[in-house]
């Protein structure tokens, strides 16, 4: 798989240090995963649901070992290559996703699909879904991911029969 031609994501953090001085951190993302299927970056992981400004600089130094953080608020970018067919999966998160490059198809397990273009926003409420790139161009979305309660259908979570969704933990 060739490397993504999209520019490296850039993260700019503004905060106040312990002496009350403003700080600007400007860098590329501190963590990237590059596998044969897609490329993903983590730009920020916040372990607390409610932001703590006095911890912002410390949070920015976190070096994650994975992309998914179902128990933390996180910022991530995902680059999806041309002609990519994603697997149906779910996360126990609310994902606020904005497509920044290209065009993607959001697919649900019952066959429903929705084309998502640059500037479109998707709010995924802990559901089973897949991302497909049916074009010959790379696509990227950026997402803010927030922990969620598990979805229950007839008292069972999405990973239990009869649903058996794949819980993404990459």
UniProtKB/TrEMBL annotation:
SUPFAM superfamilies, sorted: RmlC-like cupins
Highest taxon in the source lineage: Eukaryota
Gene3D superfamilies tied to this protein: Jelly Rolls
InterPro entries associated with the record: OryJ/VirC-like (IPR047142), RmlC-like_jellyroll (IPR014710), RmlC_Cupin_sf (IPR011051)
Coiled coil: none
UniProt protein name: Cupin 2 conserved barrel domain-containing protein
Native species: Kwoniella europaea PYCC6329
